[in-house]
Amino acid sequence: QLQLQESGPGLVKPSETLSLTCTVSGGSISSSSYYWGWIRQPPGKGLEWIGSIYYSGSTYYNPSLKSRVTISVDTSKNQFSLKLSSVTAADTAVYYCARPSEVDSSSWGNWGQGTLVTVSS
Amino acid sequence: EIVMTQSPATLSVSPGERATLSCRASQSVSSNLAWYQQKPGQAPRLLIYGASTRATGIPARFSGSGSGTEFTLTISSLQSEDFAVYYCQQYNNWPPEFTFGPGTKVDIK
Predict the structure, then answer these.
(1) Per-residue pLDDT reduced to its tens digit, B5-41
(2) Do strands A11-12 and A69-74 pair parallel, antiparallel, or not at all (unpaired)?
(3) Nearest-neighbour CA in chain A from B34: distance (Å)
(4) How many degrees, rounded to 5, is the angle at CA B46 between CA B43 and CA B47?
(5) Residue A78: how many other CB atoms lie within 10 Å
(6) Which residue of A has its CA nearest to B58?
(7) Which residues are within 8 A (CB) of B81 and not within 5 positions of it... i.e. 6 or more apart?
(8) B-contacting residues of A 11-70, CB under 8 Å?
(9) Concatenated DSSP letters for A68-106?
(10) Neighbour order of strands in the sheet with B19-25
(11) Nearest partner of B18 among B65, B69, B82, judged by Cα
């Protein structure tokens, strides 16, 4: 069974770079069938797609965050990562890593438990 | 950019009653529409994809309909475990982008 687990600092200072890693178990991150993504949720608010990375290495980002986001894959560790630069308090959120289900590539069927990142000095 | 809206923001329903949630896209998304359920402190759970197909393990009381710009999630008889926030989400093929609606909270009347 596929499992995703986010990890990284829970506290980041303003203007610094937020870095998170998603570790995948129960499946290979280099499978040609899937892409992988990051989604966030500010406290008490809705969901926001951050970006996705495909098995080919192609990346696609939310236009509103594109200038600050980098998503990469480390196939040797079965992990993918998120970097968000120049963070502000508005970037405080629960960050989820996710993957589509086996039967539909247009929705997110598999989610990590999420990790809260607070931006504060 | 496709904008998703949901109505109502909050829906108060008694257990056993029917709940109807709406989702609207600012332009056609064909059937690339999914619904999620989220409970406090949990990750979202996929309920419906392709506008009307239930995800694995989702009870038959959940149903989705619609295409283009207007979509509906219906919960035929609300159970206690169904009180949660529900989000719709569209997928744009090119460039690949995902947009979520603001959510509808279903609470106990």
Answers:
(1) 999 999 999 999 999 999 999 999 999 999 999 999 9
(2) unpaired
(3) 6
(4) 130
(5) 16
(6) A109
(7) none
(8) 35, 37, 39, 46-49, 52, 60, 62-63
(9) GEEEEEETTTTEEEEEE-S--GGG-EEEEEEEE-SS-TT
(10) B4-7, B19-25, B70-75, B62-67
(11) B82
Query: In whole angstroms, what is the distance from residue A12 CA to residue A32 CA?
Result: 34
User: Does the beta-carbon distance from A49 to B98 stay under 8 Å?
Assistant: yes
Q: Which of B69, B34, B68 is nearest to B54 (CA)?
A: B34
Q: What is the pLDDT of residues B77-103, one digit of tens each?
A: 999 999 999 999 999 888 889 999 999
Residue A68 phi, psi dihedral angles, 5° rounding: -115, -5
| Minimal CA separation from B80 to chain A, in Å | 22
Encoded tokens for A5 = 């687990």
CA of residue B106 relative to chain centroid, distance:
11
Of B50, B98, B101, the CB nearest to A104: B50
Pick among A108, A111, A113, A116 to test the B interface (most B CBs inside 10 A): A108
